[in-house]
Amino acid sequence: MYDNAEEVLNSILTIVDKCPDPFKEKCFEVLLKGYVDAQLGASAPAKSNQTQPQRRGDPELPSTLVPATILPRLQTAAKRLGLSVTELESLFDFTKDPFGFHAIAVPGENKADTARKVAMAIAFKTYLSTGSWIADWKEVQAMSVDQNCYDRKNHAYFLRSGGNFFKSVEAGRNLELTSDGIKEAEKLIGALAKDGQR
Amino acid sequence: MTPSSDVLETYFDTLQEIDDKLGKVGKAEVTDPGLIQELAELSKSWLRLSESLRSAEFIDGAGIDTVNGTMQDVLASTNKRSRANTYRRKLAPVIEGFLDQFVVPLIRFEGSPSQVAGRQLVSTFESLLDPDEAKYVDEAARCLATKCYRASIILLWAAAIARMHSAIEIMGYKAYNSALDITLAKKGNPFNRVSKSGHITSLPELQRARDFDLIAVGMELWSYDLQTFEELERLLGIRNSAAHPGMSTPATLDVQHFASKVSTCVFSRIKPTP
To answer: Which residue of A67, A171, B34, B82 is 20 to 30 Å from B20, comparing CA positions?
Structure first.
């Protein structure tokens, strides 16, 4: 470490000399810090990275983009689904605020099945952000349009049919998942995450 | 205010129903005064809706102009002798493009994550608010939906203070002043930070009272403990950071978290009872 310190310091001083007086001190500080940080980064032992979630290649560690309030639920869900955190994280775009899904294709045997799965996927996303297994009606409508499974006149009927997945289905009201619905939603998210890794 | 996608879907259903009725008349002149009235109403409703739709950035203004032209034409035709197939010919392009041009963009907008976050914020306070407090929360939700996070936090705190004010007004200023005296008699932090001249006898004085004093005296008034007070003080700090220039950069989740804490610490604990 610091093998070429003298040489680098001379270069820094040359650069600093070119700065206007009021900025010389700050310039020196910034350049020296940059050099020291680079040296520390290059020589740090591998084990010190264990506390840095941004380490690449470890599937158990999420990226630093995941908000702190979401992280515990993301980690718990990943464990429950038998997925790595990065596999589960890959379904979502945390660079956006509020976060949303990356481009996904929700599977389904027909329009009704796909619409129900859309609602389940959205409920999972809401669970990550608020802890409640609830799907916003309008969000389900919008994602159904995108997934080509929105049938204006039958949308509520589609959601009601196929099993007891939602506590109640009323047009315009949020959809809360039953325990069966939660299991189905987790199965769906697991499948989507694994599919995304292929 | 932009109409909802439900309103537009209902309008589209009416449009199709009228078109079906016109189809049954065939090529003959429309003489049924009821149907003529429905056509006139259909046109007028659209012209009213279109004004509100113009404020929506995600809807193509040129599309609105085209439909406006058609509907004005249809409205003018209702004052003349017109054949059913003439009406149908005018309405056909509107029916064909209506869903794609207006309904789908509106559904996408309403279902966008920001709009959903706004609605989630309102649902956090479901059945906890009186109409006056609801106005602040609704405005906070609108701010969140338009990504004005600092404004949203400030309005949520305003709702919390509105609840405290109304609770104090119902209890009476005497009760507040007694609670203040008890608080001031206590030693140490945070009691020694409460204003000593904080007695109030009127609403304007209450409105001038420091938020910190309210939450500290609140321990006596509403029987919450020091931990709840500390939580409220943290929330007040976040509110103050949002209201002043600085490096605070709240995001959607921060606002949602703030709302959830306000709901628990204020609206679930402080009930406006005498």
So the answer is: A171
